[in-house]
Amino acid sequence: MPEIRLQQLRKDYGAVNVIENLNLEMADGEFTVLVGPSGCGKSTTLRMIAGLESVTGGQIVIGDRDVSKLEPKERDLAMVFQDYALYPHMNVAKNMSFALRLARMNKSDIEKRVKEVAATLDLTAYLDRKPAELSGGQRQRVAMGRALVRDAGTFLFDEPLSNLDAKLRGQMRAELALMSQRIRKNMIYVTHDQVEAMTLGDKIVVMKFGEIMQAGTPEQLYRNPANKFVAGFIGSPTMNFLAAELIEENGVLSAKGQGFSIPLPDARRASLQAHKDRNIHLGIRPSSFTEGPGGLKMPVILSEYIGAQSVLISELGGQQVAIEVNTVVPIRAGEEREFKVQGDEIHLFDPQTEAAL
Amino acid sequence: MSIARTNRMTPYLFLAPAGLVLLFALFYPICYMIYASFLDWNPSQRIGEADFVGLRNYTKLFSDPSFRESMWVTLKFAGVVVTLEMFLGVGLALLLDRNIRGMSLLRTLFILPMMIAPIVVGLMWRYMYHPTVGIFNKTLKSWGFDTIPWLSDGNWAFASVVIADVWQWTPFIFILSLAALQSLPTSAVEASKIDGASGWQQIIYIKLPLMLPVLIVTFLLRLIDSFKVLEVILVMTNGGPGLSTEILSLRINRTASEFRELGEAAAMSNLLLIVLLLLTFAMFIYNKAQDARAARLRAVEEEA
């Protein structure tokens, strides 16, 4: 299982440039998730790796082979499509064995392989059914099975869970995670759902407008987002952004906005010195607030009770803020509470470049 | 009459005019024809004066070698023509199902023959097949080859009418196949590429099987139509030479107008009608089966 490198990858559709200069390395056996909003070029990138879209410029290297001009079948990969792309006229067994039959593998081996994979995916009872006679979740598993049977070097997933309902999606996500642990192959997974990205990926690549905003482990992206876009994209509920000014009061560097002033930890003083007395954007995750005396007095405008947690919608300096708290006793809308912010969990961004400070 | 009852009658009221037209324009002539097929009827007689001969017209037909020849020509013509058209039409569709500049113009050009009136097609081909001034023989001659007796030799005449029909009707199959091809799920085709299917394998294992329902209906439509050709052959060969291109509809025409045997012509028409009804029925059954299957699958899906 070779590593995969994208080098100066470029894609144009006629005069429209979708991806300009994409560089990415994926280590051997790594589960890489490409994530981003619609139109960010993640699916296009995946389809270029698959060979379903031509490459306008640059190279796709798998191992030490430049595959960018090769046919899909010469790239040693398997793919799971968003709409499953099962062959409607073949039953489950035929669907799963199609690639093996094309490769002229001998019949008993094919049968054995299909049965093995079907067993791991709970599909044994459905081998004779046509795709139209299966439920969404079963179809999805057949699509998975079709990819697994192949024993390809690289697995590509194009939003494979987005057509499932929420409950099934969670279940399939867990199954996928288990599967990837078991087979340890190169996996490239495209999704717009950051929860999928966080739970599945060894490495997450956040994309926007055909550019990589940041690539790293889920933890890196969550703890140290490189820019405001990544900060806002990763994490749920979404990070709060507030306009503020970086000032020094009584020898303490703090972010001062309308109606609040939050002191920043000493450790960040050196790196922030250059931005003193400038406007900044403050990013606070809803979970960075803790309720307690001596904090900011904030009104509870709306309380969304989810169970163990509640998400409160509040207001700080005229700007809406979401706060996530553990529900001990449900907090009702209309109350006023005091919340503290952990100084070391605060993110600061340059308002022009949106880069993290 | 209660309001509810009136309401229930409303649809029938609206259907009535169309029903009346059908009754007079379709049902009446068919009954007339069926009745006439039991008569020994000459065009100079009124129908009431004709002798009733029972099934004699039918029994005569089956022992008539010309009729059997004509039936054979019709079957041969329909079989050859539809087979060729299916291969060419589907092949062209597979070939032209891609995004190349000027493709839409090309597609439009391909379907032009279908839009020309059959009489005109017949005339056009007759001139092209003309033994001395026709473009084919003139070209052959200028290249130093022997000329071909396009319409004056039995086998060549059959081939000539087949060529003309294929030229006119391949586009029909082409556009229907192209439409079917373009509505195929793209991702299934892409999946087959990833699974390692070559261009041919994609066509044989994925595209054709998925197009099959459309192809079957197209095939039956075309088959029904090919049993009814008249004008093109009438203009080109008038059934000749000998009986080599005399398809059934031409024979019916001749029996009625030339041999003045209205009863026999009616019997032949009835036989042709039965063949066509069987084909239509086959198509109907096929569509029903497809619908039933779709309904069953939908039910399964909703259940799931």
Automatic annotation (TrEMBL), chain A:
Domain of life of the source: Bacteria
Leader sequence segment: none
Keywords tagged on the record: ATP-binding, Nucleotide-binding, Transport
GO terms, molecular function: ATP binding
Pfam families reported for this sequence: ABC_tran, OB_MalK
ABC transporter domain sequence ranges: 4-234
PANTHER family with a match to the protein in the record: MALTODEXTRIN IMPORT ATP-BINDING PROTEIN MSMX, OSMOPROTECTIVE COMPOUNDS UPTAKE ATP-BINDING PROTEIN GGTA
Family: Belongs to the ABC transporter superfamily.
Protein name: Sn-glycerol-3-phosphate ABC transporter ATP-binding protein UgpC
Organism: Parasulfitobacter algicola
From TrEMBL, chain B:
InterPro entries from the UniProt entry: MetI-like, MetI-like_sf
Domain ABC transmembrane type-1: start-end pairs: 71-283
Name recorded for this polypeptide: Sugar ABC transporter permease
Keywords from the named record: Cell membrane, Membrane, Transmembrane, Transmembrane helix, Transport
Membrane-related topology note: Multi-pass membrane protein
Family statement: Belongs to the binding-protein-dependent transport system permease family.
Locations listed in the record: Cell membrane
Protein biosynthesis in keyword set: no
Transmembrane segments: 12-35, 77-96, 108-128, 156-181, 202-224, 265-286
Family annotation (SUPFAM superfamilies): MetI-like
